[in-house]
Amino acid sequence: MKFLLVFDFDHTIIDENSDSWIVKCAPDNKLPNELRNSYRPGHWTEYMGRVFAYLGDNGIKEDEMKRTMTTIPFTAGMVDLLGFIGKNKELFDCIIVSDSNTVFIDWILKAADFHKVFDEVFTNPAAFSSTGYLTVQNFHAHHCAKCPKNLCKRQVLKEFLDKQLERGVSYTQIVYIGDGGNDLCPVMFLKKDDVAMPRQGYTLERKISQLAQDLSPVECSVLVWSSATEIMSYLKVLIKE
């Protein structure tokens, strides 16, 4: 009996958007209008590449970025939840599927000593170049019309489950914890025994509600949360059953 916990990162594990938070490193804590206005829907990763280039051009170094990123607050109750999962790792496999990047997630999880809670992190690969600039790439190429160009979370989840099955690992239940519009695609992949946990007041909750109103509800159960202590309460019941 093993459960798979799938977490988004921004506005789910942390209470902010990590890509927006890095702007605190920019001169006067803001980006020039022409850079801000250069974003095109579905092409966030390319936009962040330009943001990182701007920070590099302004002499913002790795240590300053790291200091800034590790001040991001965790979502209410999340520290307790991750501590609980860490103590019960024999029951939970735990992955992150995020539109952030490897550098930011690694810094934040390691600073709080939560990196061992997660078995795998699927996010956009990032690295510092020889000139000290942070660079980021798309996670993969995919053919899903619903998702941003760089990442289809459903495809990531499906490929992870297939790989686990080859290793002889299957899950009693998948619990998907997220907040954003790009979390809807993987949620629609979940089966009736699984649970989607959208964060209250965020896009994922609204989109799931809209599907129910349109009489095409998601197949899995839906439990809304505002504090991660509610997620922990659910998991405690789950492992007692």
TrEMBL record:
Signal peptide: none annotated. The keyword Ligase does not apply. Mg(2+) binds at residues 8, 10, 179. Keywords: Hydrolase, Magnesium, Metal-binding. Substrate binds at residues 19, 99. This is PHOP2 phosphatase. Gene3D superfamilies: HAD superfamily/HAD-like. It comes from Balaeniceps rex (Shoebill). Belongs to the HAD-like hydrolase superfamily. PHOSPHO family. One of its GO terms (molecular function) is metal ion binding. The active site is at residues 8, 10. Its cofactor is Mg(2+). The keyword Cell membrane does not apply.
